[in-house]
Amino acid sequence: MLQVLQWLKRQIVEAFKISDEVMRSKAVETVEHEVAELDNIFGILVLGAFIGIPSPPIHITMELLPLMDKEFDIMLDKVLTAHDPLGHLFSVLGID
Amino acid sequence: MKSQLLFFIGKGGVGKSTTSALTSVYLASKPYKTLLVSMDPAHNQCDIFDQDFSEKPKRVSETLMVKEVNTDFWIEKYLKETTEQIKQTYRYESAFNLQNYFNVLQFSPGLEEYALLLAFEDTLHKYRDQDFIVFDMAPTALTLRFFSLPFITLIWLEELLKLRSAIYKKKEIISKIKIAGKEIEQDRVKAKLKSLIVNYEDLRRQFLSETTNVNLVMNNDKLSFAEAFRIRQKLSDISIGIDRIVINKLNPDESTTEIENEFKEQTIGRFPLAPKGLSGYAALKDYIEVYKETFQEISGNIEYRNR
User: Fold this and answer.
1) Which of A10, B25, B154, B170 has its CA 20 to 30 A from that of B8?
2) Residue B183 confidence (pLDDT)
3) Do the Cβ atoms of A69 and B90 come within 8 Å?
4) What's the complex ipTM?
């Protein structure tokens, strides 16, 4: 009997943990998207030369380039999905 | 005493190299430890001294050294270092693609003045023990870009840092909610931006400091007068002032009132036209011997500054 109760308790705690995690990530989903957008803007500002946009004095690009692998990925990714910005927005806002 | 930096700037062909060489030889004879640096990618100090120079300073006399900045060397060195860093941080596939883009970057406009800036920093760092470092600059356009580079760069860096800080704050919020309490790792880009800003602020301070003396070289004619006027305007936009006007190739009894009236705040140096041209160290020494009064003005300036 005790074992069953303990098992039940573990299950409940586990369930709470998972739902907590889900809630937490739901709460920051939009902010996360905003950060990705800002990262992209930062990437374009610094690395614009790579996608054909005039960039800052070239030595700034060169100094920061080695540290910006993530932003570079995001930027190239955004360039690839650039033809469907609305679809992207709808998926972020959870509209089907 | 901190090294005094003398920049010789002006229109192409007015005699920046000649006047800077003469000034250096004179200063070295006083005897101040003097380093003459040719920053013009089309070097001609080798013709004036009639010997070869390179990136490594060559001793011309006991107190005088001359070096020519090799911009290609600096660009190449810089690109190599950056490529190494990229290879270390990027994953293989993206680094592989990146290399192609990167090969194009080296032809970007703006690298030449950056190379000059790197060479300038390096010179300041290595030869701090000199009393005078004389810079023979490139013609107007490149020189103006060189001077404005730290100013423009700082504007960019500060804006980028603002944006980056905003992003970082949001990331902190996310991580606080998601993994409660845990600190997120320090942003390397932000740290780099900050260190770059410190670096360029140093450079800007150097350009604006008392130890930086800008000598504007001109001839007594309409064209170089007009250009001198524009240079002054452009430099004052970034609040760099002109300390001294050098009038080169003056004929005896030539009137310079027009220049004097226009540049009232600056001291004026007058270099008479050398009848046979100047080539070789001995010829430079002779010139200094013959036109003593030209150089008295320079020593007057030094005494004033050392007081």
Assistant:
1) B154
2) 66
3) yes
4) 0.72
